[in-house]
Amino acid sequence: MFKKLVILAFLFFVKEQIIAQTYESYQHKGEIGVGIGLSNYFGDLNPNENFKKLKFAGNLYYQYYLNNYVGLKLSGVYTRLGNSDMGSKNAAYRARNLSFNSDIWELSVSGTFNFFKFLPGIPNHNFTPYISAGVGVFNYNPYTYLNVDGTSQKVFLRPLGTEGQKSTTPHDGKKYGSMAMAFPLSFGVKYAVTENWNIFAEVGYRFTTTDYLDDVSTTYAGSEAFQAATYNGTPKDLWYAQRLQDRSGVVVTDPIGQAGYSRGNSKAKDSYLIGLIGVSFNLNGYKCPPSGR
């Protein structure tokens, strides 16, 4: 009986030593992941920050771990953002009657931190909440739809200068390009289903450097800014700009788009939120023991 106990104790000791050495030598090198989810835009056409216009989002990323807690992530994201004054509970916004959509292509680099040691395939180390923060750039190009002779036409808004950007008359509108910076701040949880595969859920907020995700920021330039004599653009762009810079006349008797009247809020930048669920494949490795061991 005593001999059996000694053998069992010895086997248990060996097992613990093997596990300890595995913990010491094992390192989660990185992972490649893909996720899908929903996005929501916040800005001049969603001043109450509601979630009524959720859009599809997807991402692809590579993450390299410096150790079992800290990593660097390179991430690519696609989503579509959009909203409309139509259906707003606020009568003033309904009268404004603006709308937009924009396809977003984002590339970012983030630092990540796991709250728990994450070692896929090792018991009690296969789950962790995490946070990440980083910097990125994204491409955007807002557009809307205009009914022309009974046909809905897709019209890109930036080339039109709807806040007077192409006019020689005084205006508050600022010229903007197709690129801006984003600062992602994310929180998520990750679980290793096997040594090779994880599942994750993540919510990330994007602060941006633009107030023109929606083509709305400052004040109306007024009809004087959209005349052939004052507009520096093509006749086609002028024709569309005349109809899209102030859409209030479609829904109210007296259009509200007089020069200097508020069209948006330039004091706050636009932003967006992305929620994702997905899977990732682990790139695992083992530390080389020091020489002499």
UniProtKB/TrEMBL annotation:
Gene3D superfamilies cross-referenced by the UniProt entry: 2.40.160.20
Q: Which residues form the DUF6089 domain?
A: 23-148
Against SUPFAM superfamilies, the record matches this protein to: OMPA-like
Give the source's domain of life in one word. Bacteria
Question: What's this protein's name?
Answer: DUF6089 domain-containing protein
What organism is listed for this UniProt entry? Pseudopedobacter saltans
Q: What is the lineage of its organism?
A: Bacteria, Pseudomonadati, Bacteroidota, Sphingobacteriia, Sphingobacteriales
